Amino acid sequence: ALCFQAFLQMCNLPIRVVCRANAEYMSPSGKLPFIHVGNQVVSELGPIVQFVKAKGHSLSDGLDEVQKAEMKAYMELVNNMLLTAELYLQWCDDVTVEEITHPRYGSPYPWPLNRILSYQKQWEVRRKMKAIGWAGKTLEQVLEDVDQCCQALSQRLGTQPYFFNKQPTELDALVFGHLFTILTTQLTTDELSEKVKNYSNLTAFCRRIEQQYFEGHDKDSSAAVAARSAKRSLLR
Amino acid sequence: KYNADYELSAKQGADTLAYIALLEEKLLPALLHTFWVEAENYCSVTKPWFASRIPFPLSLYLPGKMSREALSRILLTRGGPPLYSLTEVEAQIYRDAKECLNLLSKRLGTSQFFFGDTPTTLDAFVFGFLAPIYKVCFPRVQLQEHLKQLPNLCRFCDDILTCYFRLTVSGKLCFFSPLCHVWIKTPDPALIISLQMDDKLDKSPQHPPRKLTTLKLAAGGEESSSLNCLSP
């Protein structure tokens, strides 16, 4: 959810974040997050970017064709590696599942619904992991993959302020969303956030975006709201 | 000792990973679909092809299993709402695959390989995905038609095929191993294709690559033009 907030704030569009228990069902595609504009509801990054572009706001207009291709490739890398690793950690690592995911996911519902729904979600995620070949991976291998992905992102970022030099793009929003969530969410172990912290330019990047786009805004600190909603989003 | 990526910069190495992820996310579902799920293609080409190379009785069971696994992978990774029917999922994955091919074409531009004049891991990956689409003769060929509209990608495949692969007189495909400087009869074109579709190549250790002499096809180049249709 954080990457969308970041993206929308980079486009200078005002937004309000609301937490709802039935959010997954409100979304037209069943996936979170989604935005509700006037009488239209749009979910998922791709369609939201298109929607915003159609309204006249776009972050990647300044890029040439080759750079746009690169941007899309990196976005896929982030989705492929980081998102799948986050899902793996939440739903396939038994310790995390027992102590954090099950209680949090089922918290809005009464017993026994909370257990049933969280087991159902876990079964779905495990099936997907098996289909893409991640079920056989151990936690160490997953962390290795995350490390590799972070290394690639760090090498691509180098010493620039954003991935495509001076202006932030959708890729920056996406990377920020994932990395910030990893860095700020409490899990049973800190290994995942340690992997990210190994790359100082990535942590500096997150801090820069946080300062620029989140802390200037109206209080009860959007960053705190974002962190709270980020915790929920990690579990969706 | 034979690291094709030795001369790449750190950023180019990162780009390699990103493009490989792009291929796996956007192109692979459509490729799996063309080979294993599209009924006409599967029944008339893929199944007999694989079954002819697998010993009985596995040949009765394995192709079917691979087909079911391909379908389940496509549905699980791409088949969530708002796409509710298989036809919608299919339309979406082919749209994504065509967009991916366009992106690759833009990235390749006019250069010979993706990172200059020498091939790297990324070139091998892209070739592995594109060559089956380009060369295998299927009844249903929407991806192939789209690929043929991108001349630089076709030229890329042809270059690699002529440099590193060659048909012998007996019609068996063999490839030039730059490592040993000999021609090696392949086990099977099907095997190469299925290997490419499988997991990532292992990262080789960091050593300078042997200088690859650019290979021109020998004057007596046998029937490389008959590579129009890769047949088992």
From TrEMBL, chain A:
<keyword id="KW-0007">Acetylation</keyword>
<dbReference type="InterPro" id="IPR019564">
    <property type="entry name" value="Sam37/metaxin_N"/>
</dbReference>
<dbReference type="InterPro" id="IPR040079">
    <property type="entry name" value="Glutathione_S-Trfase"/>
</dbReference>
<comment type="subunit">
    <text>Interacts with MTX1/metaxin-1. Associates with the mitochondrial contact site and cristae organizing system (MICOS) complex, composed of at least MICOS10/MIC10, CHCHD3/MIC19, CHCHD6/MIC25, APOOL/MIC27, IMMT/MIC60, APOO/MIC23/MIC26 and QIL1/MIC13. This complex was also known under the names MINOS or MitOS complex. The MICOS complex associates with mitochondrial outer membrane proteins SAMM50, MTX1 and MTX2 (together described as components of the mitochondrial outer membrane sorting assembly machinery (SAM) complex) and DNAJC11, mitochondrial inner membrane protein TMEM11 and with HSPA9.</text>
</comment>
<dbReference type="Pfam" id="PF17171">
    <property type="entry name" value="GST_C_6"/>
</dbReference>
<feature type="domain" description="Metaxin glutathione S-transferase">
    <location>
        <begin position="147"/>
        <end position="209"/>
    </location>
</feature>
<comment type="function">
    <text>Involved in transport of proteins into the mitochondrion.</text>
</comment>
<keyword id="KW-1000">Mitochondrion outer membrane</keyword>
<dbReference type="GO" id="GO:0001401">
    <property type="term" value="C:SAM complex"/>
</dbReference>
<dbReference type="GO" id="GO:0015031">
    <property type="term" value="P:protein transport"/>
</dbReference>
<protein>
    <recommendedName>
        <fullName>Metaxin-2</fullName>
    </recommendedName>
</protein>
<comment type="similarity">
    <text>Belongs to the metaxin family.</text>
</comment>
<keyword id="KW-0813">Transport</keyword>
<keyword id="KW-0472">Membrane</keyword>
<dbReference type="InterPro" id="IPR036282">
    <property type="entry name" value="Glutathione-S-Trfase_C_sf"/>
</dbReference>
<dbReference type="InterPro" id="IPR050931">
    <property type="entry name" value="Mito_Protein_Transport_Metaxin"/>
</dbReference>
<keyword id="KW-0653">Protein transport</keyword>
<feature type="domain" description="Mitochondrial outer membrane transport complex Sam37/metaxin N-terminal">
    <location>
        <begin position="4"/>
        <end position="121"/>
    </location>
</feature>
<dbReference type="Pfam" id="PF10568">
    <property type="entry name" value="Tom37"/>
</dbReference>
<dbReference type="InterPro" id="IPR033468">
    <property type="entry name" value="Metaxin_GST"/>
</dbReference>
<dbReference type="GO" id="GO:0007005">
    <property type="term" value="P:mitochondrion organization"/>
</dbReference>
<keyword id="KW-0496">Mitochondrion</keyword>
UniProtKB/TrEMBL annotation, chain B:
<keyword id="KW-0813">Transport</keyword>
<keyword id="KW-0653">Protein transport</keyword>
<protein>
    <submittedName>
        <fullName>MTX3 protein</fullName>
    </submittedName>
</protein>
<dbReference type="InterPro" id="IPR050931">
    <property type="entry name" value="Mito_Protein_Transport_Metaxin"/>
</dbReference>
<keyword id="KW-0496">Mitochondrion</keyword>
<dbReference type="GO" id="GO:0007005">
    <property type="term" value="P:mitochondrion organization"/>
</dbReference>
<feature type="domain" description="Mitochondrial outer membrane transport complex Sam37/metaxin N-terminal">
    <location>
        <begin position="1"/>
        <end position="66"/>
    </location>
</feature>
<keyword id="KW-1000">Mitochondrion outer membrane</keyword>
<feature type="domain" description="Metaxin glutathione S-transferase">
    <location>
        <begin position="97"/>
        <end position="160"/>
    </location>
</feature>
<comment type="similarity">
    <text>Belongs to the metaxin family.</text>
</comment>
<dbReference type="Pfam" id="PF10568">
    <property type="entry name" value="Tom37"/>
</dbReference>
<dbReference type="GO" id="GO:0015031">
    <property type="term" value="P:protein transport"/>
</dbReference>
<dbReference type="GO" id="GO:0001401">
    <property type="term" value="C:SAM complex"/>
</dbReference>
<dbReference type="Pfam" id="PF17171">
    <property type="entry name" value="GST_C_6"/>
</dbReference>
<dbReference type="InterPro" id="IPR019564">
    <property type="entry name" value="Sam37/metaxin_N"/>
</dbReference>
<keyword id="KW-0472">Membrane</keyword>
<dbReference type="InterPro" id="IPR033468">
    <property type="entry name" value="Metaxin_GST"/>
</dbReference>
<dbReference type="InterPro" id="IPR036282">
    <property type="entry name" value="Glutathione-S-Trfase_C_sf"/>
</dbReference>
